[in-house]
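Notebook entry, structure prediction.
Reason for the run: the old model in the group folder had no record of what sequence produced it. Starting over properly, with the input documented here first.
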Amino acid sequence: MQKVWKQAVSVALATALLAGCAGEEDTIQMAPLPKVESAFTPQSLWSQSVGEGVGHYFSVLKPAVGYGKVFAADRDGVVKALDPADGSVLWEQDLEADVTAKLAGGISLSYGKLFIGSENGEVIALDEETGEIAWRTPVEGEVLAKPLVDEGLVVVNTGRGVLQALDADTGKPAWQLSSEVPNLTLRGDSAPVSISGGIFWGQANGRLAGALMNTGQMLWQQPIGSPKGGTEIDRLVDVDAAPVIAGDRLYAVGYNGNLVSIELRTGQAAWKRSYSSAKDFVIDGSQLYLVTEQDHVVAVDIRSGTELWQNPDLEYRLLSAPALINGYVVLGDSEGYLHWLDPMSGEFVAQQQTDGSGIAVPPVALEDGYLVITRDGRMNKMQMP
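New structure, fully documented this time:
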């Protein structure tokens, strides 16, 4: 199975189509940096290195906050617990063994442990107080999405289309559920979510699925998109974004698919709207914020699916998923800028430059500020003035 990152596919396809066409410009171009008169300038409280970061790799390693600590990791296997007050290192663990650890997907916290997966097909549990390895278990495929921890289980969605559950205390396999994986898929997988004994996740075949948390018994599947077009690239329909639960509805979006509102109990679609995305999205109140495959930022009313606004001025700047910080919609880009948008209008409010190495994951909110981590592993705690 060949995995490709959606932006790489777009650029490669455009290059192939234009090969031999002298004088023609690449039709996919990064939008210039918008000129923004910032309404505020955030202040830096501390800065700390977290290994080598993720570099140019796909590894999505969003920091986690809990147990009075900040937990962060780099792709090579360095995991650190930091004091959120001053950034000092409380403990450090190196998970690299015989080969590079290739950590990916992000960190989950629960039951006094932190859980993280790897491209080597492992799930690793660490003690949150000491950083000592509690267990590490091989699973069926790469773990590119954040593990889900609930009801005594750690559940991962692997690159082979296997949803696999492990005992949170011991790491022993509990159950697994397989789905069909097309020959060509995007470089990424959907992180599962859970509520009231049910677990929900996106699949590479363009479907959203629901199952029982304790047994893995399938409940329902709902198509988010259907393959169309004459080439395998045109027919990509991965559901890589993590679903979001709000009230009695579940929301999901697919690449070359739709944004869908689904009734949790029945699995039936309440509404569908034509948006294509492979990035996580967020919901605040009745508004949903997502980044499309062209890196347009969109706000949608979750009650009806009505588009409220769309900002195309960051097109193809390789945006991170959105975050909600101090009431604003915030996104990072590949040049290391944070863009702050008004949630009601989509207009730019502020622009913040980091160290220029690029931002792969959205900022993380704290009670007294927020965290920004760049591709080279530099973490900064910032605060609004």
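Summary: The first helix runs from residue 6 to 18.
The old model has been moved to the deprecated folder.
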